[in-house]
Amino acid sequence: MTTLVWFRQDLRLHDNPALAAAAARGPIMAVYILDDTDTAWAPGAASRWWLHHSLDALRRDLGALTFLRGDPLKLLPKLAAKAKATAVFWNRCYDPHAVKRDTALKERLKKDGLEVESFNGSLLHEPWEIKTGGGGPYKVFTPYWRAALARDMAAPIAKPKKIDAHRHASSETLDGWGLLPTKPNWAAGFAEHWTPGEHGALDRFERFVAEDLAAYGELRDRPDRPATSRLSPHLHFGEISPRQIYARLQAELDSKTTRSGATKFLSEIGWREFAHHLLYHFPTLPDDNWRAEFDAYPWRTSKADLKAWQRGLTGYPLVDAGMRELWATGFMHNRVRMIAASFLIKHLRLDWRLGEQWFWDTLVDADLANNAAGWQWVAGSGADASPYFRIFNPMAQGEKFDPNGDYVRRWCPELAKLPDKFIHAPFKADDETLKAARVVLGKDYPKPIVDHDEARKAALEGYKKVRAS
Prior knowledge:
mainly alpha; Serine Threonine Protein Phosphatase 5, Tetratricopeptide repeat; DNA Cyclobutane Dipyrimidine Photolyase, subunit A, domain 3; 3 domains; 19 helices; globular
């Protein structure tokens, strides 16, 4: 009665419906397949770093894990036959490539006489379960989340008491996949910030609840404060489930100290659910403007400006600090993500898809639904999007959310000696102040590559063409 358990974005033992159901049947063969067939949105470089370490942790926790590389449509039926399996279980994924592939795979395996079951291991609710009064998908977050909260939430499933896992002799080696960068090892500093794997996820969550949840609502927008959960990569790879988070936070909702923070954090889980809801119902979300009228926007083309943005050399310290944090850690604070994205789209007027692609390659928490929905939100082209005329002023945002300049000073150390007054706008400092801070603009730190007021005016002119289309 061997059951194949196909792991994907569910790299954990707790609250894993497919694993629990398979373990209850008897022996299992756990397999992870590095799918090379999704050429458009294959995991980016930073995601591959995380994936390597997360799979290594899962292998140790399970005791045995089979690694295969290639097309699951071909590999899983062959593995099932070799292992003399009678069933294949997996937890569902919701991106367009996975939905199409898994549907075909389920039909193929059933024709081979296998029992095939898929489960919800990634979301509080399936994307098709939350419907408007008219029976369609939601397009605005607030009514979506209200409807989601009104439904019963499934309780987390316990870790199987016994897992009888076996590894197949045809397994490849994780090291042989070359997921880790070597020459150069640009991820050398990642380990200082992250512990991939289920144990790292659970530990991170408990520390967040104990140390930061109470002030989360108040401090979550402060990149200079360690106030956010940093659970996003753990959630993407399924090292912790939203059901575990929801269940754990119910007790915190009864506490005056943590009620506000817990409510706000759960709404962020809601945004993740909403993004997956959108991607499932609108599968072109990562590639096309959700609002077709935005096809008329007159994007600029500038390789130099794109490179300056990517390297954190725009001349706007908060933007540059965020882009440098991203390169050094594989992560960027959410408030700064919005500001950096807005700068690319509305200051430089470069296509949002260029930013989406860069984030996809450099974020350890790169998630197709969240990434696409987030970029379209900033661009104004998505569902429940930020108004097109909302153009973040990076200087004002810095003064508000990094008031002492600690975040900028950490990631842009060449500006460390500037007084707070000029830390978010060094180009406004007089020569004497710059000299005292040992900053030569254009040498130690770049001059702004675009003027804020002029950029804002140009962006609004571009959006007029959208409104007229």
